[in-house]
Amino acid sequence: MDDEQRDDTELPALEERSDAWLVGRARELLAVIQVSPVLERVRHTAEVDRLLAEAQHRGEPRMVAQLLRSAVAVRVVNNELADSAEPLLDELLAHTRRHGLVVLQADAHALRGRRLLLAGAEDAALSEAAVALAMLDEDITPDAQFGGRNWDMIMAATLMDIGTVLTQLGVYEIADQVMNRANKSIRASAGPHLISVHLINRARLLVGWGLRLERISEDERAAERFATAAAIAVAVEAPFRESLFPRDAHLAAADQNPVIGAALALAQPSGTHIERLRGLTESRRYPRELVIVAIALARCLEHEGREEEAVEVLGKARALMYHEAAEPTLRLCLIREYARLSGPDGGERTTSALEHYATELEAQLWDMRESRIATLNTRREHERLSRMHGTITRQALQDPLTGLPNRRALDERLETLASSPANHPLAIALVDLDGFKGVNDRMSHAEGDDVLRVVASTLRDALRGSDMVARYGGDEFIVLLPGAPLTAAEAALRRAINAVSGLPKDLSHGVTLSIGVVSLRPQETAVRALARADAAMYQAKRGGGNDIVAISGSDADEAAENRSGHGADQGGGHRAGNGKHRSAHSTDGDRQAKADDPGWVLREAT
Question: What are the Basic and acidic residues biased-composition ranges (predicted)?
C-alpha cells in the first residue's frame, strides 16, 4: 500500500526505523505535499511532525535539525499552514545556533524569507535572504558527521531555498548565481529527485526572468531565457521519472508539471500546447504556476488567432491573483499581458493612457529592482562583517579545544551573576576528570584531546541552557548554576556524572568526573567560593572519584582547613549518592598551591 493511502494505524513503528529512514521519509513527504490537496497536506504534515518527535526523542542534533527543517518546509509551501511554521522556525534557528550547524541555520533564514513572502513582507524577506547568503559566504568546512553525500544535499537544498526567495522577489541575476552554486553540490552527490527539483526551479527562474525582461522591451534577451528554460524542460524528463514526486508514469513531465509545460510553450507558442496547458491550469497548486501557465496559454491562443479566449484566460487568472501577495513580480507580468491583449475595446485614448501608465510603472519598478540589488549586496556585506566581528569576539572568549567558554568568559559571567540578586542562589561547581592522566600516558595527547571534547560536550548537554560550563585549564571545568539551590545543583551535576560514566569506553577511555559544589554566600568573593568548591571536589576524589560532594557554608570552613590538616571523618561535606561524610583532607601540595595562587582563582566579584 502506498504511504499516501495508509491511515494512521498503519504507519510504521518509528522507534524501529533508522535515523536515515526518518530523514528520507520526511523528504519524500515534502515532495508529496507540494502536489497534494489541502486535506492531504494536513495529514502529511502531521506525519512529518511525528517523525520530528521521534528524532527529538533520540536527541542526535544533526538529525533533529534536518527534521525541524522538513517540518518548517512543509508549512511554508502554502498559506494554509504557514502560521504554524513560526514556532518551528524559532526552534530551528535556536537549535542550529547552539550546535553550530551553519548551513542549516542559513536555510532557516531562507525558509523564514519564504514565510514572510506569503505575508507580503518583501523587505523583511530580502533581509532574511541577505543573512542566509552572508552565512554561506563564510569558509564552511563540510561536517563529516553528516556524510559527504548528505552534506552536499543539505547545501544544495539551502541554496535552492535562498534562490527561491530571490526569484519570488524578482532579483533574478543574484538568484541565478545562487542556483549555479547549488548546481555544483547537486552534480557532486544528488539523486534524481534533487536534480528534478533543481531543474524545475531553474526553469521557473528563467521564465520569470524572461517575462520581466519583456516588460522593459528586452525581447531578444527574454527569448534567450525562454529558450534555455525549454532546454531544461527537455532535460528534466529522465530524472523526473525517478523523482519522489507523485506522477503518472505514462505522461511526460511537461504534462504534469506546470512550470515545465509553460516553459516549452513560451519558447515556441503554438496550438500544440493548448490542451496540455488547459489541463495544467486545472491542476496547478500555487500562484506562480497559475500566472506562468495562464500567460503561456494566452500566447498559444493568440498565436492561433483566438485573442478573446486568451483575454478570458488572463482575466480569470488576474481575478484569482488580485489579493495574492507572494508573487509581486509575476503578478505585474500578468497585468501587463492582460493589458496588451485587451485590445482597443475601451477606445484608443483609454488604451494609450493605460499603456503610458504601464510604461511609467515599469520604469519605476525597474529602478526598484536596481535598488533591491544594491540593498541586498549592502545587507549581505553588513551581515558578513557582523558575523566576522562576532566570530573574533567569540574566539576571544572561547576555549579552542572544547568550544566551551574560556576563563575570561567565565570571569565576566560570574561577576555578572554574583552582582544580581535575581540569580541567587548561585551554585558553583569545580569539575575534575578522574583517570585523565592515564589516557595521556597510555595513548597520546591527541586521544586525550578527543576525550576532553567528548566530556565537555556531554557535560554541557546534561545541564540547563542557562547554566554555564567553562574550561578552566587542563582537565578542569567550572560550572555556574544560577537560581539553583545546593540540592538541585547536586541532582543536576549527578546527572552529568552519570552521563559521562555511561559514555562508550572507546569515547571516554574510562574517564569519570569528581565534582565539588558550593552555594555562593552573601558578600562572598569568587576566590573564596572557588576554594570551597575545590575542597569539596578533592574530597570526592579521595572517596574514589566518580562522585559529587556538596559543601554548605558552615561546613566549608572546616573542610577547607582540613585540606592541609589531619584526619578524616571530622564532618565537612557530604557525598551525594552514598551519604558518607568525609573531611577535605589533602597532602597534595600542588593543588593547595593552586588554591592559594591569585593567578589561578578568579578575580574577586563583589
Answer: 585-597
Let me know whether 313 and 422 are in one domain: no
Please indicate, yes or no, whether residues 551 and 418 belong to a single structural domain of this protein.
yes
How far apart are the C-alpha atoms of 287 and 293, rounded to whole Å? 10
CB atoms within 10 A of CB 134: 21
DSSP per residue over 285-300, as a string? Answer: -SHHHHHHHHHHHHHH
The whole-number pLDDT of residue 41 equals: 86
- Of 179, 157, 210, whose CA–CA distance to 31 is shortest? 157
pLDDT number for residue 325: 63
Domain that holds residue 569: 407-596
Same domain, 319 and 434: no
* CB within 8 Å of 324: residues ≥ 6 apart: 287, 331
Domain membership flag for residue 204:
yes
Verify that 293 and 424 share a domain, yes or no.
no
| CA 57/CA 63 separation, integer angstroms | 11
Angle at 369 between CA 366 and CA 375, to 5 degrees: 150
> What does the pLDDT look like over 56-103, one tens digit per residue?
999 999 999 999 999 999 999 877 788 899 999 999 999 999 999 999
Q: How far apart are CA 333 and CA 225, in angstroms?
A: 15
Same domain, 574 and 495: yes
Residue 476 lies in a domain: yes
- Co-location of 446 and 327 in the same domain: no
Number of domains in the chain: 2
Cα-based angle 558, 561, 565 (whole degrees, multiple of 5): 115
Distance CA 457, CA 469 (A): 10
Q: Same structural domain for residues 342 and 415? A: no
- Considering the domain boundaries, does residue 112 fall inside one? no
Per the CB < 8 A criterion, the answer to whether 310 and 301 are in contact is yes
Q: Where are the alpha helices (DSSP H) in 397-426?
A: 407-418
More confident residue, 440 or 7: 440
Name which of 138, 208, 141 is nearest 171 in CA terms: 208
CA 21/CA 7 separation, integer angstroms: 19
Strand order in the sheet with 512-519: 468-473, 476-482, 426-434, 512-519, 547-551, 573-576, 581-582
The domain that contains 248 carries what CATH number?
1.25.40
Chain position carrying cell 583517570: 435
* Helix/strand number for the chain, H first, E second: 25, 7
